[in-house]
Amino acid sequence: MKKQPKIIGFVGLGLIGGSIAKAIRYFYPDIRIVATSGRKETVDLALSENIIDEGCYEVGETFSKCDYIFLCAPVSFNAKYLADLKPVIKPDCIITDVGSTKTDIHTRVIELDMEANFIGGHPMAGSEKTGLDNSKRHLIENAYYVVTPTSKVSPEAVEDYVEFIGSLKALPLILDYKQHDYITAAISHLPHLIAAGLVNLVKHNDSEEQYMKKVAAGGFKDITRIASSSPIMWEQICVTNHENISELLGKYIESMQEIKDSLDSVR
């Protein structure tokens, strides 16, 4: 790594932000970590457990000396925080994010003329559980970590960032941000909708005795586990990637219709 970061900031310390912060603390104990969160209790907990060195309760001057800043709030909030950070960051600061959709934030980066300071990121890891309490240092280990550089960020900055992510034991994968959103619509966003649809199917078609719910075993629970994830997060994901999700949902419905037609033809 040509330029190892000395100070790293976090906006948001939930499951993903907390896990990345813990990994940085483990592999780079000398890096100073500063952070804010939407909940004061989260910042206080991170300080008490030595996950971060300095906490604050708003996005501002505290982040002015950061080499990297990780935006780890819900996707629409991440886009908003860019404007708050623009006046305070130093010229060579790299802002990144961990959002499940990329087009929305890349569009905002372009509007704010911040492309030289932004590299999108998305660790392909997670859980139906949320919050700092459920974060784990090894959450991103051996998981693909998609990196979506802008067209104006320097190749050297991208190289350093990719190497840094790799040093946390994740597996960096560079993609165009639009390609990322189409891929995740298929392998992440659509499965969530399918899981939620199955839960609602059982809810609305179960008997008064709720026998479906009672006898549901491992297979059903496995396929519907992700339906219990944060509704706020998933609402924002669906809004910011609705075109890709709708296209792939249409193709999925067509494939299910073919299966239904085959079943209906059985004599």
Could you walk me through the main structural features you see in this protein, from its secondary elements to its overall organization?
The model has no long low-confidence stretch (mean pLDDT 93). With 267 residues, the chain is an alpha/beta fold. Helix 6 (177-205) crosses helix 10. The N and C termini lie far apart (66 Å). It has helices spanning 15-27, 40-48, 75-85, 103-111, 155-167, 177-205, 211-215, 218-224, 231-240, 242-264; strands at 7-11, 32-36, 54-56, 68-71, 94-97, 119-123, 144-149, 171-174. It has a five-stranded parallel β-sheet with strand order 3-2-1-4-5, with helices on both faces. The protein has ten helices and eight strands.
Give the SSE map:
Layout: E1 7-11, H1 15-27, E2 32-36, H2 40-48, E3 54-56, E4 68-71, H3 75-85, E5 94-97, H4 103-111, E6 119-123, E7 144-149, H5 155-167, E8 171-174, H6 177-205, H7 211-215, H8 218-224, H9 231-240, H10 242-264
Parallel strand pairs: 1-2, 1-4, 2-3, 4-5, 7-8
Antiparallel strand pairs: 6-7
Helix pairs in contact: 3-4, 6-10
Which properties best describe this structure?
267 residues, alpha/beta, 5-stranded parallel β-sheet, 3-stranded mixed β-sheet, 10 helices, 8 strands, 48% helix, 13% strand
